[in-house]
Hints:
This protein has a 16-stranded antiparallel beta barrel with strand order 1-2-3-4-5-6-7-10-11-12-13-15-16-17-18-19. The chain has 2 domains: 2-88; 126-459, Porin, CATH 2.40.160. The protein has helices at 2-20, 23-28, 31-107, 117-123, 217-220, and strands spanning 125-140, 146-160, 164-176, 184-198, 204-211, 241-252, 259-267, 271-272, 282-283, 304-316, 319-331, 339-351, 355-368, 372-374, 377-386, 400-410, 416-427, 432-443, 451-459. It contains 5 helices and 19 strands. Helix 1 (2-20) runs antiparallel to helix 3 (31-107).
Amino acid sequence: MKTPSFALGCAALCCALVLALPGRTAAAVDDQQFNDLKELVTKLGQKMDKQDQRIEQLEKTHGQDTEVHAQDQKIHEQDQQKIQDLERKLGETQRTVAEVQQTAAAATPAEPLPRVPLEEATVNHNFSILGDAEFQYAKTTGQNGTFLMADFAPIFLYRGGDKVLFEAGFDFILQNNAPTSSGRTTTVNLSFAQLDYLINDYVTLAAGNLLLPLGTYSERTAGWLNKIPDDPLPRALLPGSGVGAELRGAAPLGESGKMLNYSVWGVNGPSSADGSGNAAALDLGGNVGLRSDNAVANLHGQPSGGARVGWFMPFKPHYDVELGLSGQSGEWDDAGQHLWSAAVADASVHLGSSFEVKGEYIHSQYGTDDLGEIRPNGWWVQAGYKVAGLNLDWPLINNLELMNRFDSMHDGLGTWTRRYTVGYIYYLSNTLLFEGDYEFFRSNDPTQKNRLVFQLSYGF
């Protein structure tokens, strides 16, 4: 300890002073003075001991205060971290609440607006024009090559409210008539024109000049949608359209995407071109209820009736199968003594986004005055493969689709034709197509000859 050393030092110093004084002075210091001095030094030492104890206590207290301060600082830092964590969690909770509120608001059905029948046709409508155009070059065996045909086919669409639709399609065709005749021919045809009324999610009423769902070709593949420049041969055995009314729609089968689609219609149907009822007079184009003298009357007593039912089954995206069965029957001669009827089985398969195959089998029959019952029939199958499915890193190759088709037809009058077509489609864009095909014919009709066809198609 510092205090005893300090006291002893003071005592020693005092003794040394006493001894160092001259003899006269030492003799003058008696015992009482020495004891008083000793007592003074002792008290001074005790006082210094107390002071050192206070200093030691202060140092100890200061050390404890420093430790307490460090602990307080650490607790303060922990509290700050907890406050920051709570603020972060509060922000996340507020964002979650906001997202839930937005989702709930989007899911809440909007209150329906009151119906305003007088303004529906003029305010709530939309009009657009779609369609396609084709330009075709052909080289037939034994003949000169020629620019054979130019076709412009606009489609007018009008939406008159939430439930009323109108659509009409035209064909403007400029065709080279050689070698059968000189010059060229320009024709304008109304392909279809119909008014659609959406009764509910499963039923639509259509009326007008309807595209007939005898198979799927007329509605889904004709024109620009067809990936081969001309129609399959047996499609010539069926009418493409008819004037009348139709109910159509679809119903889901479970929740896996399976669907049953249907169509039921009544139309004027095929008719006799000259009223004779002979085989050569069959007119698949039908009539619109006017006689040759412009009197309002049907050329035969009963219209035709038809129906189609289809089953669509998807496996996964871009993988699906559809099967359909359709038919139509009705009077076709003016006397109402003979029926015309047809049955069509159709199928389509998609295996990924690159491969598809589809086809139809067609059987028809009609009674005649001169040849009795005639039974034309035919079938076709068509396949396409997009080379992009091979994942080749070759320039331009991914824009190519390879096509082939086989079709066969017997007209029921003794003529048969089989044709095999192989070709390609080059996609200059999604809507601009350059097609090339070569057609091989086998037939007992000498006019059917092999030919090369190129076509430029544009859809808009």
